[in-house]
Amino acid sequence: MNKIELLSPAGNLEKLKIAFAYGADAVYGGVSHFSLRIRSGKEFTFESFKEGIDYAHSLGKKVYATINGFPFNSQIDLLKKHIVQMAELKPDALIVAAPGVVKLCRELAPDIPIHLSTQANVMNYLDAQVYYDMGVRRIIAAREISLKDIKEIKKQLPDMEIEIFVHGSMCFAYSGRCLVSAVQMGRVPNRGSCANDCRFQYTLYAANEDHGTLFRLEEEPGVGTYIFNAKDMNLASHVDEILASDAVDSIKIEGRTKSPYYAAVTAYTYRQAIDDYYNNAFDASKYQQELATTKNRGFTDAYLIHRPFDKMDSQNHDYALSKGSFEVSGLVTEDEMHFMCKYKTYPNEAIEIFAPLNSEIETCDNEIGSIFQGEDGKYYVKFKKILTETNKELESVHSGNTNKIQLPGKLPYLTMLRVENDEEEACCN
Fold first, then answer.
1. What is the chain's Cα-based Rg?
2. Which homologous superfamily does the CATH classification assign to the domain defined by 326-426?
3. Taking the domains of the chain in order of start, what are their residue ranges?
4. CA of 4: how far to CAs of 170, 244, 277, in Å?
5. Which residues of the chain have pLDDT under 50?
6. Which pLDDT tens digit goes with each residue over 148-167?
């Protein structure tokens, strides 16, 4: 049995490094409007994306470049130039959605493997075979597919790699084939500029065309306000079933526009789930507890295990996004002796240390503060004083402060300091 790949989102260079530090084997990202995440694509330049690829390769890990938009005729020449530019960066694969773009990539970048985007909606081995014959060597299956159908595709095409989404935002439309944003905002989802209109609150009306009256429909409290709003996918509790199928080569986390904390927690948690499975120590409750600390719209296990018509809990009619149970207080800098404040930090408060995978934490106690292990087995830092890099003492430090803040002792680069929200802050917004 081959060990499955964990694939994380990389919206920018910092999140790319965080994903690897917390357990990802590979990441995916892009640099232009030919990627379906235009907002995150703008955070990468060709130079920084190349830096990310070189960084990944130095770790023995991989980067997949997204070219999964659907181009207009007027964009074809620009697309050809873009494919050549991306190929020069030496990514480990190109993620492509349109058959014509697959053909172009084969012609212009013949040495780079092609992965077929979930936007291509592959649900069966007949479609998979067509793309295999075109040169595709991995399909990212439609999010509506079942594990049973994935196993059948693998049976029919054993040399085709199969990648599936296991976590992140869900679209209420079929594999993201939505035009609501295009109609309402003029932003075309399948060109990389979705406005997320499905997350808005809607008020429903009924019209009588005979005499032109319009009635506002009064809704039962908590039902129907967010009528298009899908919960977030969370298949952590089913990682054991996925791996046991021996049909999936890569599990993928959605979220190039999500926070660095989301990138860290999801990579860390799914890495744990994978490793625990291979070590016969799988514990679904542990993973769910950790994932609940991230901002989410409520969780659903979506359709991989259950058919869509069996699912009655995939929509969230109450709110668009919750805060999550934790806030990131700080991010440790590369020198490992300072952190940058991301929330708020006060003296004499115990702050949990959330460190990259397999980190060793050294305890200490000095005039700046202490690093210690709590009774719960977790590590914490407590500051006796808040000192900047230049030894200026502050009463507290808040997000927006660009000064490095001294740590009592060394902590691994990209370690996150996190504090639990109080109940009022943690409620849905």
1. 23
2. Translation factors (2.40.30.10)
3. 5-174+231-310, 326-426
4. 23, 11, 11
5. 39-41, 423-429
6. 999 999 999 999 999 999 99
